[in-house]
Amino acid sequence: MHHLRPLFTRLAPLTRLPRWTVLPACAALGALAGGTYGLLHTPEYTATSYVVAVPQAKTDPATALGFAQAYGRVATQLAVLGDAQVAARVSPTELQNRVKVATSPDAPMISVAASATRPDDAATLANAVARALTTSADHTKRSTQVKLLPFSRAVEPTAPSTLSTPVTTLVGLCAGGLLGGLTLLVRPRAGARPAPPGAAVPGPAPSGTRGAE
User: What whole-number distance in Å separates Cα of residue 122 and Cα of residue 155?
Assistant: First the structure.
């Protein structure tokens, strides 16, 4: 071990760094981790298509709104996605993982958002599911008196929907700085020493005691 003593001697000053150095060190580590994640993570693109529920003759518009909510719930079911897998060129299970459907409480509108690693694939998936949903609703329009029509086709996105490398670096920097600040609050000061377990605390002097005259 004697040949390691020079190394320990050189590292000894590092162990006596000020407490505040924890904050920039944690912030730098967080920024490094966030930047690395941003560089290694594959960006994803999201495309969205919209479908509108239209009431037929003698049908209350509120009925169309209710059926839009219902169709939004079944849009990601295998019965609907099975018709979209041919145009999407992926399995129904993969479509369930890539597609998210949302509805509005105020308008009979259904949004179909699809994510993929390529912009054209994202638009293809969204349009395929929206087309399959309108086809499925067309089979029951006589009984429901509500028809689904395409409102807006999905187009290829021009920018990824995932966070960019500068943003992930900034997030990592903030998270590291927060952890460093919490460490400074929890870590005891170097000069603070706990009181001995047997130390007696002096009590207050009796109120009737006076100094000798």
Answer: 9
Assigned token pair, 113: 């958002």
123 vs 169: which has the higher pLDDT: 123
Residue with tokens 């924890």: 22
Asked if 80 contacts 136 with a C-beta cutoff of 8 angstroms, the reply is yes
Task: Please give the sequence-ordered ranges of beta strands (E in DSSP) within the chain, or none if there are none.
Answer: 45-55, 99-103, 109-116, 146-152
Sequence-distant (6+) residues with CB within 8 A of 182 are none
In which band, very low, low, confident or very high, does the pLDDT at 109 lie, cut at 50, 70 and 90? very high
CB of 165 closer than 8 Å to CB of 133: no
- 7-48, pLDDT tens digit by residue? 445 544 545 556 667 777 777 787 778 777 766 667 889 999
Say if residues 115 and 45 touch (Cβ distance below 8 Å).
Answer: yes
Rounded-to-integer distance, Cα 46 and Cα 38, Å? 18
Amino acid 114: pLDDT = 92
- Residue 203 CA to residue 88 CA, distance in Å, equals 82
